Here is the input.
Amino acid sequence: MSVKPQQTEKLQKILARSGHGSRREIETFLKEGRISVDGKKATLGDRIEVKPSVKIRLDGQLLAIKEPEKEICRVMAYYKPEGELCTRHDPEGRPTVFNRLPKLIGARWIAVGRLDVNTSGLLLFTTDGELANRLMHPSREVEREYAVRVFGEINEAKISQLTKGVQLEDGPASFKTVSYRGGEGMNQWYNVTLTEGRNREVRRLWEAVGVQVSRLIRVRYGDIDLPKGLPRGGWTELGLEQTNYLRELVGLTAETESKVAVERDQRRLKANQIRRAVKRHSQSAGRPATKRQSSRPTAKRRTRI
Here is the structure.
């Protein structure tokens, strides 16, 4: 459970959460000197740690205090379609990755990195900002895998150059691995891995050796794969095991609870939720819902979520 020890909160927030008035009303009570904490008059701006031994009174009457709810780290896997932006709001009204996600109360989804507007595939979201920051930071070297359809002349010398290192405008870069996956003529599929998330890095690496990327799909982040059977625009919440894998990967303590429904209920609800989200967003974007493809390039390993 993600709970900070000795966490303090403002008095007006504590009392408002406990049902003793609005924050503005309680601020007025504090200014009027009507609230005390352990026998001492409280003032506006005071912060305290909520614990059973603390006695808060209003006009001498002891108040019942509600402790803050424990925050549970949640992680969502989303199949980003091409054409969506990785931003919360777009001034031009274009669709964003946040439009389809389920709404939260008392928390918000934070994207773990970004994908270009023309890139599709796995995008992780979490309610834990620290987890998101650590997963994105280059020092953690979390591996990402992409399926890439390229167009151009490819030989062993170019593959060697891509794995040994290419000088880009923002510094040297390279793929950790490059593996051939098939294709016809000048259009070939490769799977590549890297441990950074620089802007358009995969495309720029291929372009540096004279090869154009015609399609790019992220199929894995760490050991979490793009879920099999998930339609474009669909999402699924990770269970406790997968969430804790990501937390432990970047040095965070494991969670002990999950908000994911029990397996029986999850199977029943998830398909309908995804279909509704895809249909709703497709209608708002003014285009027909995208049908799920029967096959797509995938990662070598698969962590089922």
